[in-house]
Amino acid sequence: MQLTARHQEYWSKNLRITGLLLALWFSVTFVLLYFARDLTFSFFGWPFSFWVAGQGALIVYCLIIWYYARYMNKLDKEYGVSEGESS
Asked: pTM for the complete prediction?
């Protein structure tokens, strides 16, 4: 099956946003949490490194999911492939 230029553009935008969000996920999961253990001050009564690992990363993950869903819904509507539309 040959993809049209419009399909390729849609797929390219999808891959670009997926790559960017995966890079953000990687940064939060491995880079930020690796350096967070050096943060020794207290935050709401807990060590800040514990708070970043236990709460902050989860908040960022939820924001990544929310942004991706919102972005893809907008992109689907732009390219006419959203749910409920007939092609």
From this structure: 0.78
User: What is the total count of domains within the chain?
Assistant: 1
Is the residue at 12 inside a domain? yes
2 is a domain residue = no
Evaluated on CA atoms 56, 61, 64, 65, the torsion sign reads negative
User: Domain range for residue 21?
Assistant: 7-79
CA angle 26, 29, 35 (to 5 degrees): 110
Q: What is the enclosing helix (H) or strand (E) of 20?
A: helix 5-26
| Residues 36 and 57: beta-carbon distance below 8 Å | no
Model confidence pLDDT, tens digit, residues 14-60: 999 999 999 999 998 888 777 877 777 787 787 777 777 778 889 99
